[in-house]
Design goal:
With 376 residues, the chain is an alpha/beta fold. Helix content is 54%, strand content 9%. It is built from 17 helices and 6 strands. A 6-stranded parallel sheet has the order 3-2-4-5-1-6.
């Protein structure tokens, strides 16, 4: 197969040039033409035209799977090249989308975004930054909607609940509102698990600002092992086969598609400082990786120093809404219930709850689910 020859050539080239940065793909064709003349000063438009021409020729007589391999390797090479120049994931995705479109290869949008995310993750990891693995940019909404299929939607896998809000589409925000102990986090984790199982190209960034990431890991183990937290810790401590099996299943299910962040910023963790995550930090991380779903637990913990809950929500919600619509990302937001709503619930009222921080949450969210605690 031609693809097999490419793999063989790639390996030989990498071994002959030990200084090559990427040993999985021979990128010499992106740096010089057939005459061997360097393209260092080549205009970007000429570079794109040459990449398109080379890829078209390579895949013209290949079976689909071999062609897909070539496309994925091109995406990896170009993503790393552009990321090294300081471009962010949404712009890289738009650039790659243009090349794939000109080539004429039928690559689903989620697969493209997944390939870009994977390449950036590898580049970030190789550069020595923290690895947060638990193991598109959208130019026009009209173009994005055409690429959607059922797998792009977020749902919890609970038919009655999913039907109540119509499922979440790219570019939309869903808010879970409830008092402490109303199972918001459990419902969120259930939804994330269902989404990643239903969408093999889906990627999730979970900002666990309330619970430590280790607690989230324990929750995942509880779900997989179907046991209590105490029993999970016993299995972990004793390295039992049950624990090893659960770990293997979690690794296979999530791989690098679930990134979990704690309350501290990545830079603060590297420097050993105590700095809480703010909306600016979150936006930077989301724009770096461009996941398909972002979950935040919980909203008002993104407040800046000396910022009230009301000011925090008024600052955060418009930013999240703008990111959702601009990049086609779905947001699942957890919010504590406002004091007045807590009092109404305590009195037995069935009126819907209000999110902590004011009415802007209800105003900007596409859907809101209120969780009620059973009376003690």
């Amino acid at each position: 197969m031609m693809a097999d020859e490419m793999r063989k050539t790639t390996t030989e080239t990498a071994e002959a040039a030990e200084a090559a940065e990427d040993t999985t793909w021979d990128t010499s064709w992106t740096d010089a033409d057939e005459s061997g003349i360097g393209q260092a000063s080549e205009p970007e438009s000429d570079h794109v035209a040459r990449v398109v021409a080379v890829i078209r020729e390579l895949i013209s007589s290949m079976p689909h799977d071999d062609s897909l391999f070539v496309i994925e390797q091109m995406i990896e090479s170009e993503t790393k090249r552009l990321y090294g120049r300081g471009q962010k994931a949404p712009d890289i995705a738009a650039y790659i989308r243009d090349i794939v479109g000109r080539v004429g290869f039928p690559l689903p949008e989620q697969a493209l975004r997944r390939a870009v995310t994977r390449a950036i993750t590898e580049e970030v990891t190789s550069a020595g930054r923290l690895d947060f693995t638990a193991t598109a940019y959208v130019r026009r909404l009209r173009e994005e909607v055409r690429r959607w299929d059922d797998a792009d939607k977020f749902s919890f896998g609970i038919e009655e609940l999913d039907s109540s809000f119509g499922r979440l589409l790219p570019g939309e925000l869903l808010v879970l509102v409830g008092a402490q102990g109303s199972m918001k986090t459990s419902l969120m984790l259930s939804g994330i698990e269902h989404y990643l199982m239903a969408n093999q190209n889906g990627t999730v960034m979970l900002f666990s600002l309330d619970m430590a990431p280790e607690v989230i890991a324990e929750r995942l183990l509880q779900r997989e092992m179907r046991t209590t937290a105490d029993r999970v810790r016993w299995h972990v401590k004793n390295e039992t086969e049950v624990f090893k099996c659960a770990m293997k299943k979690i690794r296979e299910r999530y791989a690098d598609r679930l990134l979990v962040y704690g309350s501290a910023t990545p830079m603060a963790q590297l420097m050993g400082r105590q700095e809480r995550m703010t909306i600016d930090d979150l936006k930077n991380e989301v724009e770096t990786y461009m996941p398909s779903l972002v979950a935040i637990d919980y909203l008002t913990l993104l407040r800046k120093p000396r910022q009230s809950d009301l000011d925090c929500v008024n600052d955060v919600m418009p930013t999240l809404k703008e990111m959702a619509q601009r990049y086609g990302i779905m947001f699942l937001l957890l919010s504590q219930m406002g004091r007045a709503s807590k009092q109404l619930q305590a009195s037995g009222s069935l009126f819907s709850g209000s999110a902590k921080g004011g009415g802007i949450v209800e105003e900007l969210a596409n859907a809101q689910i209120d969780l009620f605690k059973d009376a003690p």
